[in-house]
Design the sequence.
Protein backbone atom coordinates (compact mmCIF):
# COMPACT_ATOMS: atom_id res chain seq x y z
CA UNK A 1 0.00 0.00 0.00
CA UNK A 2 1.65 3.26 -1.11
CA UNK A 3 -0.82 5.92 0.05
CA UNK A 4 0.53 8.93 1.95
CA UNK A 5 -0.38 9.30 5.62
CA UNK A 6 -0.96 12.67 7.32
CA UNK A 7 -0.05 12.79 10.99
CA UNK A 8 -2.22 14.90 13.30
CA UNK A 9 -1.14 15.19 16.95
CA UNK A 10 -4.05 15.80 19.34
CA UNK A 11 -3.01 17.13 22.78
CA UNK A 12 -5.06 15.59 25.57
CA UNK A 13 -3.62 17.03 28.79
CA UNK A 14 -0.37 15.43 29.96
CA UNK A 15 0.15 13.49 26.74
CA UNK A 16 -0.99 13.41 23.14
CA UNK A 17 -2.88 11.11 20.81
CA UNK A 18 -2.12 10.86 17.11
CA UNK A 19 -4.65 10.69 14.28
CA UNK A 20 -3.15 8.96 11.23
CA UNK A 21 -5.05 9.89 8.10
CA UNK A 22 -4.52 7.93 4.92
CA UNK A 23 -7.14 6.11 2.80
CA UNK A 24 -8.53 5.14 6.20
CA UNK A 25 -8.09 6.86 9.57
CA UNK A 26 -6.53 5.20 12.61
CA UNK A 27 -5.87 6.84 15.95
CA UNK A 28 -3.13 6.05 18.47
CA UNK A 29 -4.10 6.21 22.18
CA UNK A 30 -7.16 7.63 23.88
CA UNK A 31 -5.93 10.21 26.42
CA UNK A 32 -6.51 10.71 30.13
CA UNK A 33 -9.96 10.45 31.77
CA UNK A 34 -12.32 13.33 31.01
CA UNK A 35 -10.41 14.53 27.93
CA UNK A 36 -13.15 14.11 25.31
CA UNK A 37 -13.38 17.93 25.08
CA UNK A 38 -9.70 18.18 24.08
CA UNK A 39 -10.22 15.39 21.56
CA UNK A 40 -13.25 17.16 20.03
CA UNK A 41 -11.29 20.40 19.78
CA UNK A 42 -8.40 18.64 18.07
CA UNK A 43 -10.75 16.93 15.65
CA UNK A 44 -12.61 20.16 14.86
CA UNK A 45 -9.37 21.69 13.54
CA UNK A 46 -9.07 18.87 10.98
CA UNK A 47 -11.10 18.16 7.86
CA UNK A 48 -12.28 14.92 9.43
CA UNK A 49 -15.48 13.58 10.93
CA UNK A 50 -15.44 11.55 14.14
CA UNK A 51 -16.97 8.64 12.22
CA UNK A 52 -13.96 8.56 9.85
CA UNK A 53 -11.84 7.03 12.61
CA UNK A 54 -12.21 3.28 12.27
CA UNK A 55 -9.66 1.99 14.79
CA UNK A 56 -8.05 3.25 18.00
CA UNK A 57 -4.81 1.47 18.85
CA UNK A 58 -4.06 1.77 22.56
CA UNK A 59 -0.28 1.60 23.13
CA UNK A 60 -0.71 0.35 26.72
CA UNK A 61 -3.11 0.28 29.65
CA UNK A 62 -1.99 3.28 31.74
CA UNK A 63 -4.69 5.78 32.73
CA UNK A 64 -3.34 8.60 30.54
CA UNK A 65 -3.67 6.41 27.41
CA UNK A 66 -7.03 4.68 28.03
CA UNK A 67 -8.92 7.27 30.12
CA UNK A 68 -11.18 8.63 27.38
CA UNK A 69 -11.38 5.39 25.38
CA UNK A 70 -15.06 4.82 26.13
CA UNK A 71 -16.10 8.38 25.22
CA UNK A 72 -13.99 8.32 22.03
CA UNK A 73 -15.40 4.93 21.08
CA UNK A 74 -18.96 6.17 21.60
CA UNK A 75 -18.32 9.30 19.55
CA UNK A 76 -16.45 7.66 16.66
CA UNK A 77 -17.81 4.12 16.56
CA UNK A 78 -14.18 3.01 16.14
CA UNK A 79 -12.94 -0.41 17.14
CA UNK A 80 -10.56 -0.50 20.12
CA UNK A 81 -7.33 -2.48 20.00
CA UNK A 82 -5.00 -3.24 22.92
CA UNK A 83 -2.61 -6.08 23.69
CA UNK A 84 -4.38 -9.12 25.12
CA UNK A 85 -2.43 -8.96 28.41
CA UNK A 86 -3.67 -5.41 29.15
CA UNK A 87 -7.26 -5.57 27.94
CA UNK A 88 -8.49 -5.88 31.55
CA UNK A 89 -7.29 -2.30 32.15
CA UNK A 90 -10.06 -1.15 29.79
CA UNK A 91 -12.69 -3.83 30.27
CA UNK A 92 -12.44 -4.20 34.07
CA UNK A 93 -10.64 -0.97 35.01
CA UNK A 94 -7.86 -3.14 36.41
CA UNK A 95 -4.88 -0.96 37.30
CA UNK A 96 -1.56 -2.13 35.85
CA UNK A 97 1.35 -2.56 38.19
CA UNK A 98 3.32 0.68 38.41
CA UNK A 99 6.57 0.27 36.41
CA UNK A 100 9.88 0.95 38.20
CA UNK A 101 11.20 4.50 38.28
CA UNK A 102 14.33 4.82 36.10
CA UNK A 103 15.83 7.92 37.78
CA UNK A 104 15.81 9.87 41.06
CA UNK A 105 13.56 12.43 39.37
CA UNK A 106 11.13 9.68 38.33
CA UNK A 107 11.00 8.46 41.95
CA UNK A 108 10.14 11.97 43.14
CA UNK A 109 7.50 12.32 40.45
CA UNK A 110 6.00 8.96 41.39
CA UNK A 111 5.38 10.21 44.94
CA UNK A 112 3.18 12.96 43.48
CA UNK A 113 1.57 11.19 40.51
CA UNK A 114 1.25 7.72 42.09
CA UNK A 115 -1.45 8.51 44.68
CA UNK A 116 -3.32 10.66 42.14
CA UNK A 117 -3.34 7.89 39.53
CA UNK A 118 -4.60 5.35 42.08
CA UNK A 119 -7.75 7.42 42.58
CA UNK A 120 -8.49 8.09 38.92
CA UNK A 121 -11.49 6.23 37.59
CA UNK A 122 -11.24 4.93 34.03
CA UNK A 123 -14.67 4.33 32.46
CA UNK A 124 -14.90 0.74 31.25
CA UNK A 125 -15.64 -0.32 27.73
CA UNK A 126 -15.17 -3.38 25.53
CA UNK A 127 -12.06 -4.19 23.51
CA UNK A 128 -12.72 -5.26 19.92
CA UNK A 129 -9.25 -6.31 18.80
CA UNK A 130 -7.01 -8.19 21.25
CA UNK A 131 -3.43 -7.84 19.99
CA UNK A 132 -0.86 -10.59 20.38
CA UNK A 133 2.89 -10.84 19.85
CA UNK A 134 2.14 -11.06 16.10
CA UNK A 135 2.08 -7.82 14.09
CA UNK A 136 -1.32 -6.47 13.06
CA UNK A 137 -1.31 -5.18 9.47
CA UNK A 138 -3.24 -1.90 9.25
CA UNK A 139 -3.83 -2.22 5.49
CA UNK A 140 -7.36 -3.48 6.12
CA UNK A 141 -8.00 -0.20 8.02
CA UNK A 142 -6.67 1.81 5.09
CA UNK A 143 -3.37 2.82 6.68
CA UNK A 144 0.02 1.63 5.32
CA UNK A 145 1.62 0.34 8.49
CA UNK A 146 1.38 -2.17 11.28
CA UNK A 147 1.07 -2.58 15.02
CA UNK A 148 4.04 -4.27 16.69
CA UNK A 149 4.43 -5.69 20.19
CA UNK A 150 7.13 -3.56 21.85
CA UNK A 151 7.21 -4.49 25.55
CA UNK A 152 9.42 -2.81 28.16
CA UNK A 153 7.49 0.18 29.54
CA UNK A 154 4.76 -2.38 30.28
CA UNK A 155 4.53 -6.02 29.18
CA UNK A 156 1.70 -5.36 26.75
CA UNK A 157 3.05 -2.16 25.17
CA UNK A 158 2.64 -1.88 21.38
CA UNK A 159 3.80 0.63 18.76
CA UNK A 160 2.38 1.66 15.39
CA UNK A 161 4.99 1.77 12.62
CA UNK A 162 4.07 3.35 9.29
CA UNK A 163 5.68 2.04 6.10
CA UNK A 164 7.12 5.55 5.68
CA UNK A 165 9.14 5.13 8.91
CA UNK A 166 7.19 7.10 11.52
CA UNK A 167 6.84 5.14 14.76
CA UNK A 168 4.19 5.94 17.39
CA UNK A 169 5.60 4.33 20.48
CA UNK A 170 3.40 5.41 23.39
CA UNK A 171 5.71 5.42 26.43
CA UNK A 172 8.45 3.19 24.96
CA UNK A 173 10.44 6.43 24.77
CA UNK A 174 9.79 9.88 26.24
CA UNK A 175 11.02 13.34 25.38
CA UNK A 176 11.34 16.48 27.44
CA UNK A 177 9.98 18.14 30.57
CA UNK A 178 8.42 17.11 32.91
CA UNK A 179 9.46 13.55 32.09
CA UNK A 180 13.12 14.01 31.22
CA UNK A 181 15.59 16.53 29.74
CA UNK A 182 15.86 15.06 26.22
CA UNK A 183 14.60 12.04 24.29
CA UNK A 184 15.30 8.53 25.57
CA UNK A 185 14.36 5.92 28.16
CA UNK A 186 10.85 6.29 29.63
CA UNK A 187 11.06 7.53 33.22
CA UNK A 188 9.08 4.45 34.28
CA UNK A 189 9.72 1.03 32.82
CA UNK A 190 8.77 -2.50 33.85
CA UNK A 191 12.00 -3.78 32.26
CA UNK A 192 14.71 -1.43 30.98
CA UNK A 193 16.53 -4.20 29.06
CA UNK A 194 13.29 -5.02 27.28
CA UNK A 195 12.85 -1.34 26.36
CA UNK A 196 16.23 -1.55 24.60
CA UNK A 197 15.22 -4.80 22.85
CA UNK A 198 12.02 -3.14 21.61
CA UNK A 199 13.96 -0.07 20.39
CA UNK A 200 16.15 -2.46 18.39
CA UNK A 201 13.03 -4.16 17.03
CA UNK A 202 11.46 -0.95 15.68
CA UNK A 203 14.81 0.33 14.34
CA UNK A 204 15.38 -2.97 12.51
CA UNK A 205 11.83 -2.69 11.14
CA UNK A 206 12.67 0.68 9.56
CA UNK A 207 11.68 3.40 12.09
CA UNK A 208 13.12 6.80 11.14
CA UNK A 209 11.18 9.20 13.39
CA UNK A 210 9.91 8.48 16.89
CA UNK A 211 6.61 10.00 18.05
CA UNK A 212 6.32 9.58 21.84
CA UNK A 213 3.08 10.13 23.74
CA UNK A 214 4.93 12.50 26.09
CA UNK A 215 6.96 15.14 24.24
CA UNK A 216 7.96 16.12 20.73
CA UNK A 217 8.95 13.70 17.95
CA UNK A 218 12.66 13.07 17.46
CA UNK A 219 14.95 11.22 15.00
CA UNK A 220 15.19 7.44 15.50
CA UNK A 221 18.96 7.89 15.30
CA UNK A 222 18.84 9.08 18.94
CA UNK A 223 17.75 5.59 20.02
CA UNK A 224 20.44 3.98 17.87
CA UNK A 225 23.08 6.14 19.60
CA UNK A 226 21.67 5.40 23.06
CA UNK A 227 21.82 1.67 22.32
CA UNK A 228 25.41 1.96 21.12
CA UNK A 229 26.35 3.90 24.27
CA UNK A 230 24.69 1.27 26.50
CA UNK A 231 26.40 -1.69 24.75
ZN1 LIG B 1 2.68 4.60 30.55
ZN1 LIG C 1 1.93 7.90 29.47
Sequence:
Amino acid sequence: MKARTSIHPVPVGIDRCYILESVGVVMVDAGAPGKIGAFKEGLASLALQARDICLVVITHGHFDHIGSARAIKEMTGARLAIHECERAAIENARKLEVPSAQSAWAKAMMRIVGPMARHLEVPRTTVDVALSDEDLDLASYGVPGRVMHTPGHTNGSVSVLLESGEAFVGDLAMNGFPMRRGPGMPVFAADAAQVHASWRKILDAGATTIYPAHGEPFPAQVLRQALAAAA
Summary: The chain has a mean pLDDT of 92. The two ends are 36 Å apart (CA to CA).
